[in-house]
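Encode chain A's predicted structure.
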Amino acid sequence: MKNPWVVIGVVAVVLIGGSVWYSGQVSKSYNEGVVLTEHIKGNPNATVTLTEYSDFECPACKQFEPVVLEVLAQYGDGIKFEYKHFPLIQIHPYAEPAAWAAEAAGQQGKFFEFQELLFENQEAWVPPNPAPSKYFSQYAEELGLDMSQFNRQVRSSIIKDKVRAEYNTARDLGLTSTPTFFLNGQKMNITTYQDFKDQVATAVNSSVEFGNVTTSSSGGTGVVDTTSATN
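Encoded structure for chain A:
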């Protein structure tokens, strides 16, 4: 008669191997069709670049959103706007899952539309709400997304890695709060909403004055000194 411990060991190895294989297949399914994209508004070829590091659970980010939209509406062709994730995971436990959901919506071309719904309804899905995912699914349905694709890709390790990579970049830049803005690669020092709008206007107008050769995203001439972060 075979040693029962040997049989148990063989069964255990088979079960573990099968579990690992199944996990790998599921993970592959979640990543199917995922294409990493940057989230840009305005003119992608503009010489003035405004970059925001933001957190969907952050009340200050929600309050700043209409100001950003106002600036983009005013200087649409003269500015390139980039959105970057900086979920403050130590104090905002749902910020990272919200970013995953927005990225999944972005796979169907609805990142900024999903962002708008997250900010509009922020009080509904943030703590103490115990189940934000049901709200994320609701917003996806409102946008007419393919729910099978959304529910699959929101679990994508590629999406999660992207969000965490942008978080790590923000930390490497020394950022500690949101929203934080960069104007042509320089961290903005903002005291009021009007101050923000004035600095952007100066950058855009300088670009026009100097024939759209003012700066690149790494910095340059013709831009007001913009150092430090907001709220």
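The beta strands are 39-42, 49-54, 80-85, 180-183, 186-187, 215-216, 219-220.
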